[in-house]
Amino acid sequence: MKRILSVILTISILTAAAVMPAVHAEGLYSETFDMTTVKADKTDGVIKEVEVPDGDYTVTVITGGKTETKANIYINGGERVRAFTLEAGKTQEDKQPVVPKDGKITVQVLGEAPNVTEIRVEQLPARQEAEKPTIYIAGDSTAQTYDYAKAYPQTGWGQMFGDYFTDDVVIENRSMAGRSSKSYNNDGRFDRILTEMHPGDFVFIQFGINDGAENKPERYISVEDYKKLIIEKYMGEVENRGGMPVLMTASAAGWWDEEKGNFMESRADYADPTREIAEETGCAFIDINRIMTDAWNSMDKDEVLSGYFVCEPLESKAYPAGTNDTTHMKPKGAKRVAGMVAEAVKTSVPELTKYLKGETAFTDIAGHWGEAYIKALADKKMVDGVGDGKFNPDGDVTRAEFLKMAMDACGIAGHAYREGECLDATNSDWYCYYLQSALDKGLIPDKMVNRALLGTGYYLDKHIETKTIAEATEDKEAVTKDIYVYTHKKDIPDTAQSYHPGTPMFFGDTPITREEMAALVTNIALSPVGAVTMSPDFTDCEYIAPDYQTSVNTCVKAGILSGMGDGTFAPKATLTRAQAAVVINKLVDLQK
Q1: Could you tell me how many helices (H) and strands (E) the chain has, helices first?
Q2: I want to staple 182 with a disulfide (CB 3.0 to 4.6 A). Which of 221, 376, 431, 435 is the partner?
Q3: How far is CA 334 from the centre of its chain?
Q4: Distance of CA 426 to the CA centre of its chain
C-alpha cells in the first residue's frame, strides 16, 4: 500500500500542472493546481502533497464536472468535508483553514467519483496583536454553546463564561459535542482557531471525555498519543503564534457513591495524563475536574444534581420524555462551573485577571431601604443590574421577570417551548421556557391571562389534559404528563364556534402589579389559606381584586408580604425591583 501511495503521490506531483506559479507577493506562498489531468486511484482517490513555508494557510478544493461527483475531502489525514454528491454539471468549492504538518499540506479526495478540478493553496498574512485579546475555548459538549430553540435546557460552561468578563476581552467558544482531542483536530476545528488567532490571545483546551471511546475510532486516541497531540499541536502551535494555551482537565460528572455518601472522582483516565502534561511542561493549568469534585462534596447532593442535565418530562427539547444525564449541564450548573473556571483564572492565568468582572456592586442602592436584600440576591447571582453598574431599585418589574425570579427561587425548572401552547410568547422571547413550564403546571393565575370581558359570553377554561410524550413500545410503557391547558370558551357553546377567536395572553413585558405578584407567589410557593379576610387589615383592602384577596392574605400570613408602611397594600401599584428583591429573598429562605 505504501508503494502504491508513493507512486500516486509522484504521479500527482508530476501531472498536476500549476495553473499559475507560486506568487510570493509580500513573501506569501500562493499556488493553484490544475487537477483535471490527475486520474483518481480506486483506493486512494486523488492526492496532492505540497511542501510549504511555515505559516497558516487556506486550502480550496474545487470538485464537480460533466459527470456526477461523489467525494469526501481529507486534509493532513483528517476528514474535513464529509461524503457529498453533486449532480452532473454542478461544482462545489470547499475552503478550509490549514496548518502544515511537518512542512507539508496533503490533500486527499476520496469517493467513487472525486472529480477534483482545482486545488488552491494560499498562505495567510501574519497577524499582529489585536486591540482586544480573545479567549478561545476548544472543547467538547460540556463546554459547547447550545441553541436553546433546539436543545433547551442543555448548556455548556463555555456558553456562560463571558458573563464573568468585561467587554475588554472577546470570548470565542469553539467547543463541539462528541469531539475528542483527535476528532476536533481532524475536523480542522483547531486549525481554524490557529489560523484566526492573534499574538496575545488565550486558548483554553479541554478534552478527555470522548478520547477513550475505543468503539468509536474517529474519536479514540491512546493516552500516549493524547499527550503528544496536546503538547505538540494544541499547546505548541498556540505558543508558536504568540498565544497562551490554558490546559484543563475534563469536567467532572455528578456520580454519587451511595455507600460512601459522596460524589466520586470521574474522568481520571484522561484527567491524570492532563495533570502530568501540566506538571511536565509548566503550562497554565486549571484542574476543573478536581475543583468541581471538591465543590460538589461540600454541597447538598440535590443542589448539585439540580445543575446537571437531569430533566423531568417536557423540560428538554431534545429529550421530551426526560433525562438522567449527570455529564452535561443545565443553565444553573453551567453558570456555576463557568464561575469556578473564572475564579481559577485568578491564580492559574493571572494575565486574564484584569479582564474579570469584580463583585457585583451597584452604585445606586447605597442607603436605599432595599439595599441589604438587593446585595443578598446579587451575592447569590440571582439578579442582574440594568447596565452602567446600576440596579434601578425603584424601577418596575415585568410579569416575565418576576415569574423567572420566583421560579428560580423555588427550584422550578423551565420547560422547552412548544409552538401554540405558550399563550402569546414566541420562542424568541427569553422567558418562554419559564412561561411554558408555569402554564404546564397551572401556576399562572387565571385573572392574569383572562381577556374575556363580563357579558361577552366567554370565560377562561383552565383544565388538565394528559399529554402523550412518547408512544408505548414492546419494551416500554408510554410516557405521559398531565398538563394544564388555558383556553377561552363560551358559556353556551354553539355549532358555529365554541372557542374565542383570540387566545389568553400573558403580556410578559407588562409591569406586574403587587396583587398579581401575590397571586403568582401563592401559586408557585404556597398553599392558599383562609378566605378573603385581610390580616392585617390594610386600609385599602377594598381595592384588592376579589380574585387576588386570598393570595394576598396567604402571602401576608406566610410572612412573604407586608404593607407599604402607611397601612396600605397598594394592590394596583406596580412592583418595584427593590420590592421584588425582598420577596425573592424570603422565597429563597422559605425553601430552606
Answers
A1: 18, 20
A2: 221
A3: 8
A4: 19
> Taking the CA of residue 10 as centre, how many other CA atoms within 13 Å lie in the half-sphere pointing to its CB?
6
> By C-alpha distance, which of 545, 344, 552 is closest to 450?
545
CB–CB of 425/431 below 8 Å?
Answer: yes
Q: Please name the residues in contact with 222: beta carbons below 8 A apart, sequence gap of 6 or more.
A: none
Burial of 128 (0-12, 13-18, 19+ CB in 10 A): exposed
3-state secondary structure 264-328: CCCCHHHHHHHHHHHHHHCCEEECHHHHHHHHHCCCCHHHHHCCEEEECCCCCCCCCCCEEEEEE
- CA–CA gap between residue 518 and residue 44 (Å, rounded): 71
As a whole number of angstroms, the distance between CA 253 and CA 5 comes to: 44
DSSP one-letter code for 41: B
Percent of the chain with pLDDT over 70: 91
Among left, alpha and beta (phi > 0; psi -120 to 50; other), residue 13 is alpha
Other beta carbons less than 10 A from residue 292's beta carbon? 25
Burial 79-97 (b: 16+ CB within 10 A, else e): bbbeeeebeeeeebebebb
Strand partners, 461: 487
The pLDDT value recorded for residue 372 is 93
User: What average pLDDT does the segment 291-314 reach?
Assistant: 97
End-to-end CA distance of the chain: 69
The enclosing H or E element of 95 equals: strand 91-98
**What is the pTM for the complete model shown?**
0.90
- Parallel, antiparallel, or unpaired: how do β-strands 78-86 and 46-51 relate? unpaired
Question: Residue 105's beta-bridge partner residues?
Answer: 50
The CA distances from residue 287 to 212, 275, 279, 318, 345, in Å, are 19, 8, 12, 31, 11
In sequence order, what are the residues at sequence separation of 6 or more whose Cβ sits closer than 8 angstroms to the Cβ of residue 252? 263, 265, 266, 267, 288, 289, 290, 292, 293, 296
| Of the candidates 204, 186, 307, the residue with the CA atom closest to the CA atom of residue 249 | 204
- In angstroms and rounded to an integer, the radius of gyration of the C-alpha atoms of the chain is 30
Backbone angles phi, psi at 265, to 5 degrees: -70, 150
From residue 534, give the alpha-carbon distance in Å to each of 251, 398, 442, 542, 560: 52, 26, 25, 10, 14
What pairing do the DSSP bridges indicate for beta strands 202-206 and 134-138? parallel
Spatial distance between the Cα atoms of 445 and 512, rounded to a whole number of angstroms: 12
Cell of 528: 392558599
Q: Cell numbers at residue 70, please?
A: 461523489
- Report the C-alpha gap between 134 and 172 in whole angstroms: 7
| Whole-angstrom distance, CA of residue 96 vs CA of residue 486 | 51
> Is 220 within 8 Å of 213 (Cβ atoms)?
yes
pLDDT tens sequence across 463-511: 999 999 988 888 888 999 999 998 877 665 554 444 444 568 899 999 9
User: Which residue is associated with the grid cell 384577596?
Assistant: 549
Q: Map grid coordinates 413550564 to a residue.
A: 437
**What's phi and psi for 476, nearest 5 deg?**
-135, 150
- Rounded to whole angstroms, the Cα distance separating 433 from 435 reads 6
Strand partners, 109: 46, 73
